[in-house]
Amino acid sequence: MEVGFVGLGLLGQAMVRRLSSKGVKVTVWNRSIEKAKASGFPYVENLEDLSKNEDIIFLCVKDSQAVEAILTKISPYLKNKIIINTSTNSVSKVLEFHRLVKENNGFYLECPVLGSVIPAEKGQLTLLVSGEKEVFEKVKPFLEILAQKWFYLQTPGKATQAKLINNYLLALMMEALASAVVLGEKAGFTKEEFLEILESGVGNSYVLKVKKEALLKESFVPHFSLENLVKDLNYAEELFKTFSGIALEGALVKELYKIGINLGIKEKDFSVIYQVLKKLASLTIKTKKGGDMIKNEVFAALRGIWEITEKDIIFDVLGLTEEERKEVFNLPKISFTDEKNLIFSEVSCII
Q: Could you confirm whether domain 2-154 is CATH 3.40.50.720?
């Protein structure tokens, strides 16, 4: 058994190790040739050589732009080749990839995965597969090494739709969990005891199970990076628009994750949203006049996520006086344009 593999990010490396451990000869190519050399696996320096020599090629790369560049480059060598794309892509681009490979007499399977590094190393991924049934059956022995479960959805685009909706839900659940923990701590609970309480109630979930240790230790070693989650949320937003859907909660949560990117922690695991929310919960906004003005609830509103007025109920909840409300509306809306310091012309956010 022999395959080519393109992309040696965290997930790609885990999948290569798993395939190799089960006797599959894997030849790799990576954009950074140094990473390919350091992997310890057979490698080629030129992508074209991989496509010429291997009949089955896995892709596990960052985004649709990277996939498009790869497929375009190897298009002269796609005849009778099978491309298994495990990357998460936008639905519109995936449909283009199906056409591109077919037009060059090759076969394309979109095959995004549910699960990250540890499940990949253990062969416990879940695969979502769209493409020709005969091709799927032909490569199933490889997929069985990587996954404990798969869904064959056949129609092009369906696997990607399912993956994006799954990651959309994942983002919401992680943010809700992190927000609940931050609130519990603000209320005086220890993190340990509040997580135990959540485990005994409706908070008991797969997300809590796999991210509990990260939250406890505040060690956010990447299994699924914050940057990649935001990328998937952008693709999910495109999917919502396709069906004329409005996802207000998704738009808000995406903005919260983007704060993490602006804080320079995009490569950490997406569960680092806990630290982002913890910082926001202790946020003070200072004006040029000096002195604390308002707390984190209004901070979110000022960022322009919501269009608010001076009569908005949020000010009643916070007990702001009429004079304080006017001072709020004399400030410019805050947007995270200064990625390093979060310093603005009229307002500085002290985190």
A: yes
Query: Which part of the chain has CATH 3.40.50.720?
Result: 2-154
State the fold for domain 162-270. N-(1-d-carboxylethyl)-l-norvaline Dehydrogenase; domain 2 (1.10.1040)
Q: Dump pLDDT digits (tens) for 144-194.
A: 999 999 999 999 999 999 999 999 999 999 999 999 999 999 999 999 999
DSSP symbols for 110-179: E--EES-HHHHHHT-EEEEEES-HHHHHHHHHHHHHHEEEEEEEESTTHHHHHHHHHHHHHHHHHHHHHH
- H or E stretch at 107: strand 107-110
CA 64-168-180 angle, to 5 degrees, is 140
Q: Model's pTM, two decimal places?
A: 0.81
Closest CA to 83 of 42, 54, 44, 47: 54
Average pLDDT, the chain: 85
pLDDT value at residue 315? 52
Tokens of 178: 């992190």
Q: Which two tokens stand for residue 46?
A: 């030129």
- pLDDT at residue 310 tops 50: no
Domain with CATH 1.10.1040.10 in the chain: 162-270
Neighbours of 9 (CB within 10 A): 18
